User: Which sequence fits this backbone?
C-alpha cells in the first residue's frame, strides 16, 4: 500500500476517533432535561454526535468566519455544505486556470487566485438560500442528485489533474482532496441524520451520503489504477495521432512522386519502386 493511501486511512481513522470521542463527551455532559452522565429522553445518537461536531467547529469558528464570512447560520450541515461549495468552486477555477498557457508551471499563482476567487464567491455570491436549495434538499431524489453531481464533478476535477504543469499534481494532493470529500459527505450524513430519517422519506435517503463516501474512498484507493488507465488512454491517443500524421506525410509523398514522374524528374522504374515502398508503409499503419 502506498504512503498516500496509508496517510488517507490514518486520517479517516483519526476523524472517526475524533467524532466518537466527541460523542462520548457530549453524552457525558448529559442531554436536554437530564443531569450529567445521563441522556435526555429526546436525545438521539445523531444529536449527540452533532453536539460533538459543534464542540469541534466552535473551536474553529473564528477561522471559518474569516474565510467564509458570517451570515448568522450556525447549523452544522450548512457548514459542511459551504465547505463542499468552496472546494468545488476552487477546483473548477484551478482546473480552468491550469489550462491557460500563461499559468502553466505557475502552480502557486493558480492556487492563490483560485483561493481568492472561491473565498470571495462564498462571501458575496453564494447565498444561504442557494446552499439550502442545492446542497441540502429534503426529498430522496434531490438528495441523490445533490450528492451524485458533486461527486462526479469532484472525480473529474481530481482525477484529471495528473498531467497539469511540469510535474502534474502529486498523488498525495489528489488523495487529500478525496479525504476532504469523504469527511464532508460523512459530516453531512451525521449532521442531517434526523432529517434523513423523518417520516415519509424513502429509507434509501439515509444511505446516500455513506454510499457516496464509500465510492469516494474507493476512488482514493484505486487512484493509481485510474491514473494508469488515463496514461494508457493518452498513449493510445498519441499513437493514433502519430499514425495519422505519418499517413498524411506518406500521401503527400505519393503526390510529389506523381508530379516528379510527370516532369521526368524520376524514371518510371524509380517511381514504381518508391511507390511500392510507401504503400507498404501505409498498409502497415492501417
Assistant:
Amino acid at each position: 500500500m502506498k504512503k498516500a493511501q496509508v496517510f488517507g486511512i490514518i486520517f479517516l481513522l483519526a476523524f472517526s476517533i475524533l467524532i466518537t470521542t466527541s460523542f462520548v463527551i457530549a453524552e457525558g455532559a448529559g442531554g436536554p432535561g437530564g443531569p450529567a452522565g445521563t441522556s435526555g429522553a429526546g436525545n438521539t445518537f445523531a444529536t449527540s454526535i452533532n453536539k460533538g461536531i459543534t464542540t469541534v467547529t466552535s473551536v474553529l469558528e473564528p477561522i471559518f468566519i474569516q474565510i467564509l464570512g458570517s451570515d448568522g447560520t450556525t447549523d452544522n450541515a450548512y457548514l459542511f455544505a459551504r465547505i463542499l461549495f468552496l472546494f468545488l468552486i476552487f477546483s473548477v477555477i484551478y482546473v480552468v486556470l491550469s489550462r491557460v498557457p500563461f499559468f502553466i508551471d505557475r502552480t502557486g499563482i493558480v492556487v492563490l487566485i483560485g483561493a481568492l476567487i472561491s473565498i470571495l464567491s462564498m462571501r458575496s455570491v453564494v447565498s444561504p438560500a442557494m446552499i439550502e436549495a442545492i446542497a441540502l434538499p429534503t426529498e430522496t431524489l434531490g438528495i441523490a442528485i445533490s450528492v451524485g453531481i458533486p461527486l462526479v464533478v469532484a472525480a473529474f476535477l481530481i482525477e484529471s489533474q495528473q498531467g497539469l504543469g511540469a510535474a502534474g499534481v502529486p498523488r498525495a494532493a489528489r488523495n487529500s482532496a478525496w479525504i476532504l470529500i469523504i469527511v464532508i459527505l460523512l459530516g453531512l450524513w451525521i449532521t442531517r441524520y434526523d432529517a434523513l430519517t423523518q417520516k415519509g422519506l424513502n429509507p434509501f435517503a439515509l444511505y446516500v451520503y455513506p454510499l457516496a463516501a464509500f465510492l469516494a474512498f474507493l476512488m482514493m484507493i484505486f487512484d493509481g489504477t485510474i491514473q494508469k488507465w488515463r496514461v494508457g488512454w493518452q498513449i493510445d491517443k498519441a499513437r493514433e495521432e502519430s499514425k495519422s500524421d505519418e499517413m498524411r506525410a506518406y500521401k503527400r509523398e505519393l503526390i510529389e512522386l506523381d508530379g516528379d514522374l510527370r516532369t521526368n524528374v524520376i524514371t518510371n522504374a524509380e517511381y514504381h519502386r518508391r511507390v511500392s515502398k510507401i504503400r507498404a508503409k501505409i498498409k502497415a499503419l492501417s
Remarks:
- The mean pLDDT is 74.
- Residues 223-262 form the longest helix (40 residues).
- Residues 235-285 form one domain.
